[in-house]
Amino acid sequence: MSNQKMEMQTAPVxxxxxxxxxxxPTQTVVAPAPTQSPEVQIDAEQVRQDLAKIDxxxxxxxTAETESHTTNATSNDSNSxxxxxxxxxxxxxxxxxxxxKSWMAVALLLMLIVAALNVAPPYLLQQAIDGPIAQGNxxxxxxxxxxxxxxxxxxxxxxxxxTYCLQQAGQRALADLRVRLFGxxxxxxxxxxxxxxTGELVARLTNDIDQLNAVLSSSVVVVLVEGATFLAVITMMxxxxxxxxxxxxxxxxxxxxxxxxxxxxxxxSSQGERTAMAYISSFLNEHLHGMTVVQLFNRxxxxxxxxxxxxxxxxxxxIVLRHHSAVFLSVQEVLASFxxxxxxxxxxxxVLSGWATLGVLVAFIQYTQRAFRPIIMLSQQxxxxxxxxxxxxxxxxxxxxxxxxxxxxxxxxxENLAGAIQLDDVHFQYVEDEPVLRGVSLEIPAGQxxxxxGATGAGKSSLVSLLARQYDPQxxxxxxDDIDIRQLDLADLRRAVAVVPQDPVCLAGxxxxxxxxxDESVGDxxxxxxxxxxxxxxxxxxxxxxxxxxxxP
Length: 553
Hints:
Blueprint: E1 8-9, E2 26-28, H1 44-55, H2 63-67, H3 85-97, H4 101-117, H5 120-135, H6 138-186, H7 190-195, H8 198-205, H9 207-240, H10 242-250, H11 252-289, H12 291-296, H13 300-353, H14 358-380, H15 382-400, E3 421-431, E4 434-444, E5 451-453, H16 460-467, E6 475-480, E7 483-484, H17 490-496, E8 509-510, H18 511-516, H19 524-533, H20 537-541, E9 550-551
Parallel strand pairs: 1-5
Antiparallel strand pairs: 2-5, 3-4, 3-6, 6-7, 8-9
């Protein structure tokens, strides 16, 4: 509390988890110890089993649950919505891009124009061969050559234009999404943040956003432009010569079957590769943070062996993925070459028989190449899209997981704070069937200083965390001036309760900024007064830049 201290005794509660309790035998209420995230335990035997599955390309993606082998967090939350990856991606990108729909509309229009222009060069070539070249008409040939060049210039200019529009919309949308996600995390409950590793939170804000960026920058362009180009090519082929068009399309079902066949295997191996990388990220995050413990207990050799196990797992999964991708690409190239050969033979017979011209044959050879190009390029984007789907699902789950600690819709007003505290039959546990506080009741009048004394695991920190409403009790009530703190606005409550963390925390910036903590209403006099109150003023003033000295977090 702002100006009150309290002293009281609490009986030890042996079942409280060690990482949720204070480490000191005596603690002041105004200084709750931060809850530590549970350490990650990696089962080596499970890893070996996964290795065997990787070798057979049978490891399925654990979605957020197994990927968070390091976290046990976000994705496992009982309140996490169940959604498909496809729906998550469309929902997330749709809501993020909605404010920039004008940019997207212009980009889409330009993409359609480019797709239409992509079919012009083969058609102009066919017209030139069957017309001016066959007739010796130089003037007409010059005009067709000029149109050919103008089409190429237009494609270049419009491609730049739609890329610019798409990047304007995409980068702004992703920047907004990153801010939105960070703001959501800032307002999340302490239980969620304590059971979610820092590595996972950072990954959602950085790596997953970057995966969406890759889709917007590349995959969306390929899907829209190449997809529209494919439809335009088929249309032009039917218009020019329906016999050759049907022949060209006859190979497409074979391509579709091959794509579906390899898609399943690439997806499975891609999931295995991402799972293996999740294990490596978990292991590195865990051991780099705990390097001192590893060295003090002389476990460097064992840690290196464990890392080699994870690294071998990732290597094998990556080899499987690269193998399937390489075979798929080779099959696509073989089918494309077979289609061209078939077109050359059938078109040649058509030219000899008189139902096709040489210009039509040349145009159809180019159209066949362009028909296969979208299929190959779309298949090459499959891995990126799959990764983005997983990233979108994880971000969406996190955004749609509501904080368990929230201000009421109609909060009670906290006026003329006296500081009286009452605990009424409080029951609390972090984990089901592991009670920390059982039926704690006490009253602390305003103005009294009370110390909480107890052994490690007695519930000292837990009691203070309840008072600051970092957690809510499962039963009973915590009251401030006879008001249940669950009826108070969180901002009002935390302005009334002063908390000094047991472990010091520094943010990147100057000492002055750290003391102000983003509150520009705090003047320099108040900053200096706070430093003097904590006996830090002399130390700060001896630094090179005093209160403007830059500290690292």
